[in-house]
Amino acid sequence: MKFQPDRSNAQTISGYGPGWIGIDADKITHSVIIGSGGLRQPWPCARFEDLTPEHFAQLAGLETELVIFGSGLRNRFPPPAWLAPMIARRLGLETMDTQAACRTYNILASEGRNVVAALILEV
């Protein structure tokens, strides 16, 4: 039996710390949306308190099966009413602190899942 390391074609999170994450070879210092299919775009919210219903409507428009929401330094949940566009599309959302979201995204992306991570990067 031959063993080979798992390889993924998805972009991966290579590291993280307060106020930054590494995506492949790039260091990102602002909140960001990334996807296993190559999506990478700024997400205009520096803190959890900056979030609005429009942020989740934006996520509902993405072609994905699951959104991992990294809520910052600690786990916080958006108001349920803000998730209505996602629920209408039957789009899954998992909420956790940003570091846990980074790890979870990497696992799901490496499995070939169509996953998006919306990550708040707080200092």
TrEMBL record:
Q: Which domain of life is it from?
A: Bacteria
Q: Which residues form a coiled coil?
A: none
Name the Pfam families for this protein.
DUF498
Q: What is this protein called?
A: Xcc1710-like domain-containing protein
Q: What is the lineage of its organism?
A: Bacteria, Pseudomonadati, Pseudomonadota, Betaproteobacteria, Burkholderiales
